[in-house]
Every structure is written in C-alpha cells, then in structure tokens.
Design brief:
The structure is a homodimer. Chain A is built from 13 helices and seven strands. By secondary structure, chain A is an alpha/beta fold. In chain A, strand 6, helix 12 and strand 7 form a beta-alpha-beta unit. In chain A, helix 10 packs across helix 11. Chain A starts with a helix and ends in an 8-residue tail after the last helix. Chains A and B meet through helix 8, strand 3, strand 4, helix 10 and helix 11 of A and helix 8, strand 3, strand 4, helix 10 and helix 11 of B.
C-alpha cells in the first residue's frame, strides 16, 4: 500500500512537472529543432543579466516583415485584394478612369486582373485606391473591409490567416522586454488599421511603405490630414534598413523575413555587434499552406522573390531558416 | 503639559502633511496659476477611470516642440552652432567649398556669420554638415561636440539649458502613462543623439526634420547607412501634423510649442475629441532667460516666428499660454 502511494505520488509529481514544463514552453506550436532553439537561445542570451551578450531593455528591438512572415501572402497580398475591391468606388468618383488602363481591365475582370498586370500597373492602382481620403476615414474603411472580406481558400477573414507560431514569437519577445515592430513593404496605414488587434502591435510600431498626407481645414474649420499619392518611403530591399533608421533610429537585435525584399533588413540586423538573430521563413508546406521558393522550383512571385540565392545567402550569413513543414506543429490558430 | 503635547503633535502632523503635499506636487517648479492647473486637470481628467474623458493607456500621446519649448533657442538654435562649428572640417574634406558661399563667409566669420545669412544659406550649411557620414558616426560626433561646446551666456553645455518646469511636465505625463514625443523642426538624428539622456525620450520617440540615408556595404562587407542630403520630412508648420501621422500614427492628446511652426500641431491636437491640452510657452523673462515675441515687440527670429497673431489664436483656440516669468519658479535645474 505504501509502495503504491509512493508510486501514485511519483506519477502525480511527474505529471505536474510535465504540465508545468508545457505551461512554461513559450513556443508550444514549434517542434523542437534548430529554429526553435535559435529563438530560445537568443532570448536567454540577450536578456539574462550578467550574460556577455546582455542587451539593455531600451535597446531590445525586433522587426518582422508581414506578408509571408506573419501571415499568408499567396495567391496575392491581401492589400492588393483590398485595392482591387475599391476600384469600382474610385471609378465611380472619377469616371474618366473607366477607359484608362489599368482601371479598365480591373473593372472588367475584378481580382482576376492581377494575372495580367505589371508591377507599374499595380502601383497605379494602389496609389489611386489608397489616397484622396482623410487618414481616419481610410483606416475605418480598411477595418470595414477586413470584417467582411474572405480569402479564397480558407474562406476566413484575412486576419485569421496569421501564423500561430509567429504570434507566439511576438508574445515571447515582448514578454522578455523586446519591442516588436512590423517592417513591411505593404502600406503603413493599411497595416496600422488592424495590427494592434491582430498582432498586439500599436500604430507607432508599424514601419511600411508610406505615402504623404496634406494638412488642410474641413468645412467645420477643423484640421484634416488627407492621404496624398506621393511616395515618402518605399519600404522594400534597402528601403527596409533605411526605414528602420528613419522611424525607429535603432538597429534591431532580431529580424524575421521571407523574401529578397527582407535581405537588407536581415543583413543590417546581423551587422550589429553582440548576439543578433536573423530568420527566414521557408514556405515548403503545400498541404497546410503553400510551397514556393527555391525548394519548389516555382516561378517567383510578381511582388516578391524567394530565390535559391537568398537561401544560399542564409547559410553564409548565419541566418536561420524556418521550415513551415517541419518546424511548425500548427500553422493557424483556427486549426 | 498634555496641551503642549497635543500642540506639538498637531504641529508635527501639519508639517508632515505639508511635506507630503510638497512631495506629491508633480510640478514643484511651477507657480500656482492657470497654466499649472490646466496641466494637472488634464492629467486627472484623462487618466481617472470612469471619467467621461478617460483616455486608454495606449492612446496617451503627448508631443513637445524642442527649441524654445524644452530648451533655450536664443540667440540661435544650438544645432546651427554645431553646423557652423563643423564647416572647417567639411571644407577640409571638400576644399572646393572654400571659395563658395555661404561657406566662404562662415570660414571667415565663424558663428558670427549667422547674422548675414539667409534661410537658404542656413539650409545649405545644414545639408553639407549633417550628411555624408554613417549614422552611428554622426551621433557619436554630436555627443562629442555637446560634451565640450558651451553656450555664450551661461557658459554651460547646451544640454544643461533645458527648462526644469518642462522636464517636470515630461516626467509627470510619463508617470501617468503618457508616451512623450519630441516633434521638432530640428534634425531628427541630431536630437536623437542626446534626447534619451537629456529628456528620457528614446530615439524612436523623436520626430524631426529628416534627411534620407543610403544603404551600402563597407570595406568589411558589413552594411552601412550613410546620411544623404535629401530631405524626407520638413517637420515645421503643417509638416509637424503630417510628421506626427507618419511617425506615430495617432493624434496627440497634449501638445506643447512656442512658435508659429507649432501652430498646426496644436490645432491638430485640439481638433480631436475629448479633453485635449494645447500649450504655448511665452518668452517674457529677459532677466532669467530671454524676452521675445508679441509682448516685447522684438523682431521675429529668422528661423521661427512668435507673432501677435499666434497668441491671439491661442485665446480663440483654447490654447493655454505659459508665461515663463510668472508661471515658472525656477527655469533651469542648475539655478
């Protein structure tokens, strides 16, 4: 009887220990492996007082690309879907655009038109659909659209398509005093409209491709900031490192990306002294998400490239590649 | 004897009470008056749960002009002194400038040249002296300069010339959950070099006139961001409201300025709903600091104007004017 009690107690302690260990795992959706270990080691090394690589709290900055790094970017960036969905409204307000390309094609084909449009055409559509309104009105419109729009594959709001393992990284870093920033090629104001709710990242921590505003007075005499089709920051490639310096003024200690547009951000991060973490998400899971990039031999995306060269660079530069297929137990929170 | 004890106890309690009240006064360098009351009332109204004007913690943003609002701006902005002091070094590196205006005049007259230079000339000098070097090197140079440079009147480092009452406002707002930002017409990178130490404001909370950077690789193959003479944000007048939207993405609840360059920031702040605080520092104390602006009938500064119109606007718009002479018990911490 006593032996039985001891055994029962032992099992209980073991079970409690395992539960406690699980409860303490900050990255439960990650499989054990090099990627998870790199993140945990980085956090421990940089936040343990007395560690030679200790980073003071105020300098703890981590930057995240959004499309393809924090949420799904295929078949096209959701911001482009938003822009395409807005074209009819813009043409209604400016009927002269109905016969002008690329608006004519979009009016005829809707979202399907993306296959026929050049990068320049996409920029034209973005500029026309993302400017001309007060900033508050724009953000309200984006929120309304996000509440009703559904993606084609999962039939869910786009904001459901964030990667659970990356949400865990965001929270884990913040719990350890890191300020998390999004540094996106997407529109700064577009992402600001939902990032606080979706990622826990406030507007002042969103760096993105930015157009200007113009200050004027409304009919009630109150000031209005109207979005203008004037590019201030192209937050891609070298623009990501430049944008980080402009908006944050500190070099990140950790950076996460997935395409050649993130290369300079990762280089800039690793270029600092001490312990720095640079990670690259590899989309190699066609079943649960998408497979594209070097391993798949698929053609590059129109709006981002995922070349063999980039992944070769990762090996040389000490960036850690995250395999969606083998590193992530779960991909989405709704699974 | 018992009565005496009671009296002694009463005095003791009274004294303790007064000390406690003093210790609790968040603005000890302010005289009681409309300005101090406006600040305290604003903080109480916006941070007391259940108050109809309660502001959630994440939305608490307060913006401060720097020159003339947080520190002395006369006889000229200290950043211009820095630029003038750097001209010989720039001319040494680029000898062709020695015979070109405005560099020729500055080489001959030093800081005195300011009296003879147009605004365009000042911009030329600023662009030449504030660009061409890696960002880290620039900030290090500014820190070195600040450590040795002394102002002409008090013979002290420029960073000693911050206004103690405004330092108290910064701390008081932060203690109540406000994020404090500097929104300056001065150079963003210049102010970032010392703002954390001088004001407790980190680089990511400095919005200022900004030039771009260019990303390249050094001899060691590591990325370098070099400051380029290319204006990205002119953070004056309407540019202050536009810069706040670009860099912060939230409308401030409180804003502090002192010149026409701050007018749009104050308007934009007051234009939001709920309780908003807009304040204007009036330099009316020639003995302890300087007296300029409407009350003094002095000519406007070359690089900022303090018109009667601005102060008339204050009355109409509900901005609160801070009189240095009557509202501030002490001006500097070293007094």
């Amino acid at each position: 009887m006593r032996a039985f009690r001891k055994l029962a107690l032992g099992i209980l302690l073991l079970a409690t220990g395992t539960l406690a260990a699980r409860a303490q795992d900050p990255l439960p959706s990650w499989n054990d492996g090099a990627a998870k270990k790199a993140i945990v080691d980085f956090v421990k090394t940089t936040t343990t007082e007395g560690s030679p690589q200790f980073v003071p709290a105020e300098e703890r900055v981590a930057t995240f690309d959004q499309d393809g790094t924090l949420w799904v970017e295929k078949p096209i960036y959701s911001q482009f879907v938003y822009c395409f969905d807005r074209v009819p409204e813009v043409v209604k307000a400016r009927p002269e655009l109905a016969d002008v390309e690329p608006f004519k094609t979009v009016m005829a084909q809707g979202r399907e038109a993306i296959a026929h449009l050049s990068h320049e055409d996409l920029v034209k559509i973005a500029m026309a659909t993302l400017s001309g309104m007060p900033v508050e009105e724009f953000r309200e419109e984006v929120r309304k659209w996000l509440a009703s729009a559904r993606d084609g594959r999962w039939k869910r709001p786009y904001t459901d398509l964030t990667y659970l393992p990356m949400q865990e990284v965001l929270k884990y870093l913040r719990a350890n005093g890191y300020k998390t920033y999004i540094v996106t090629g997407g529109g700064q104001d577009f992402v600001r409209a939902y990032a606080e709710k979706t990622y826990g990242i406030p507007p002042e921590q969103i760096v993105g491709t930015a157009i200007g505003t113009e200050y004027s007075y409304g009919k009630d005499g109150k000031p209005v900031l109207t979005k203008e089709p004037k590019l201030i920051l192209d937050d891609n490639y070298a623009g990501k490192a430049e944008g980080i310096d402009l908006m944050i003024g500190r070099r990140p200690y950790a950076a996460f990306g997935n395409s050649t547009g993130d290369q300079q951000m990762l280089e800039y991060t690793k270029g600092g002294g001490g312990s720095r973490l640079a990670m690259l998400v590899l989309h190699d899971d066609a079943n649960r998400e998408y497979a594209y990039g070097p391993a798949q031999g698929l053609p590059d995306s129109k709006v981002g490239t995922f070349t063999q060269q980039l992944y070769d660079e990762a090996g040389k530069a000490g960036w850690v590649v995250i395999s969606m297929k083998s590193d992530w137990k779960k991909i989405f929170g709704f699974e």
